[in-house]
Amino acid sequence: MIKEIFFTTSNKNKLHELKKILPIEIKSVELSLEEIQETDVQKVAEDKAKKAFELTGKTVMVEDTGIYLDCLKGFPGALGRWMEKTCGYAVLCDIVKFNKNNSVVTKTCFSFFEKDLCQSFLGETPGIISETPKGNLGFGWDSIFIPEGSEKTQAEMLPEEKNSVSCRYKAILKLKEFLLKA
């Protein structure tokens, strides 16, 4: 039975959210992990989980997330953080308008590493990019992402509403199911 997991994050909100949902003790560990340049969030998360385990020798978990635009054949994917740093996510509104295709899928992957076991949990949410950023809740692409079946961006949704559609929350629920069986 797994007693505790070390979650590699410096984001206190992510840690707090996981502690409320997962049935295990979660501790934060800040590590500077070199990230492979890859668009696939699962490959990035698994690589970081292995590196985190090698550095700590403890049961670890990492998270990676991405936004996959149909009009750009899945770009930026897991490289979204670099796009945000250089030009911001709002530029995606212009890109989808220019390409006349605003379809997108968001993905979050939690990868868990213990001894020689790497287990990954992927959550996906299809949707569209809004014409302009809207809302001030959330972070990252929340102000431009409208989940399928909604008329609001995630940044316009209350936390409970966002959790019902969020790729991150879907991945957390899969992780929770695994931990309850472990």
Automatic annotation (TrEMBL):
Origin, by domain of life? Bacteria
Instruction: Tell me if Hydrolase is a UniProt keyword of this record.
Output: yes
GO MF annotation terms: nucleoside triphosphate diphosphatase activity
Q: Name one GO cellular component term.
A: cytoplasm
Give TM segment ranges: none
Sorted alphabetically, the Gene Ontology BP terms of this entry are: nucleoside triphosphate catabolic process
Record keywords, A-Z: Hydrolase
Work out whether the entry's keyword set contains Transmembrane. no
**Would you identify the family this protein belongs to, as annotated?**
Belongs to the HAM1 NTPase family.
Name the UniProt record assigns to this protein:
Non-canonical purine NTP pyrophosphatase
Provenance organism: candidate division WWE3 bacterium CG06_land_8_20_14_3_00_42_16
